[in-house]
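From the shared-data thread, chain only:
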Amino acid sequence: MKLLKSMILCGMGAAALSLTSCNDWLDINTDPNNPSAQSTPYELRLAHIQFYTNSGHQFADWRTGMQSGGWTRNYGGGTYWYSSYWCPTTSPVTTPYQWWFVGAYCNVPDMYDKAKADNNPHYAGVAKIIEAYGTMLMADLYGEMPFDDIKTGSATPEYNTGKELFQRCLQSLDEGIDLLEKNPSIDPSKPSLATGDWWNKGDVKKWVKLGYFLKARWLNHLNKKGAGKCVKDENGVYTTLKYDTSLILECLDKAMKGNEDNTVINHTDDNGPTIDNLGWAEPVDYSPLYSVCGMNSGYMVTKMLTDNLENFNGYGVEDPRADHIIPWAYCASSNKDNSAVDGLKWNGHWRRSKGVDMQSGLNAAGGPMRANYDAAKGGWFIDSSNPDRLGDTVYVEATSESKGYAAKQDLLYRRNGTDASKESGSFYSRVSAPTYVGTYSEACFIRAEVLFNMGDKPGAFKAYKDGIEASIKLMNDKLNVWCQEDASLKDCPSFTPMVQADIDKFLANGIGTSGDITLGHILTQKHIALQFSLEQWSDMRRYDFNPTLFFGWGIPDYYNHDVDCAKRLPTKQWRRWAQCSHEQNYNAKNLQAIGAKVPGARMVDGSGNEVVWYKQDDMYEIPVWWDSTQE
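Structure, as tokens:
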């Protein structure tokens, strides 16, 4: 990523992470080799802002994706295995917060102010859209967060409520859209947006469409607020927030019209000299999902996901995306007729993974375990004396490799370093997998949901089908790129591009019709299209984890075997993350104070004594503002 050439301007404070003004941290003499907030051009900030914003989002996307039913990890696989069986912990909660506030947001207000002063509305408009994008991430995860008071430079800023954060995000979007729409071009003497824009390469129209898309996405979160109109005051603040279907559709009409309008980050497999400096010291070129999932071991698809890909709603037609999402393992033996054996799909020497049944007793019995490979032992095997575990070879993990970063021969992972032990990985977690910031596919699913809720089933079905087709085409675009870069990858069914006949068959016979479409069809297909997306968890919260709307979903069995689960999720409704330790340790007074405005927060015990609301075992069940009926 050659755009990422400036140094990050703010570092971690010794105590109050992100709670001190960047200008205070950088009150130093101007030095061209050590840029300060005063000396660094605003156009050089944008690429770093985008990198850290995307990384924070992707780390949250991956972690909440583990909560949403599609992925798990091998038995005893730590924090993210816990998340997959619904045992919330504080381990995953810090990184998205840190990367947004410390890596990204500390630069956003200054970039906005400097761009405004330089009469450059493109950078100012993009700053406001990113401000909204990152702030809503905080609201979706934690519910409440300091916002207004951060800009004053306070070391212990007061919190804003979830509603206030929602209002600020919509206001920022509106301002950003307005700045960009009214200024399609600028004085050519000013820095071009393309100089620093990694996401949309300076395409102002794409930024406008992204702004409207995000507005539609977030307004669609308000289905629990009741039907009505969203109303602004004279200052542009939405004082009334309702489930405004006409406004959602109006925003969608101004958002993406096709995949060509998407905001997609095309990561590269490179080990370039530009690295992050928040402590990981890894190159910024590759996908964040590769960093946290693809290069690590033991991540496996679940039965919920494989069932929906292999036989959606019992229609009997496999989704052509199945081969590319579900991992494959290479086997010395070959199933020449490619027939299924013991329920597993084969393609020559390649065998596709079975999905882990999270609602069975598999976890309680100590499985699944990771498979090893040794030719002398007959190939794939499980290193266990428990005969019940020996069959765990049917589960293939999602680990993959890289040519640039890890200097391997291709993108295939080799379990013991030999070609005989190859594994394909999964589409979304590879080193150069794209990040989908905002897509036409998701816009279609939002439209389908709104139209269905309005009673327009034919219109909903068209949008639903368009969303599925757009998702398939978007995946195929990247599969073709990978195979063009390395033709040998075509030999692995995980990389072989989808053929039109299979796509047509699925769209015609595998997704239902306008006559039988349900909200469950729409939400489940959206779930498939948005792998590793926070919107999976947001949708599940909005519809109260209803298993009739998320096909195959159910509380994992191992929830019943871990005493911490019942304490933290007594009614089995996981609705927020805990605040990270930086806020609990350094801003505890203000964090406790905001509890009085949080719907469902317990401020006193049964005897009337004050308690720390955010440290109660069951605080994970407190809904964030948009997930509640609170006005």
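The first strand starts at residue 71 and ends at 73.
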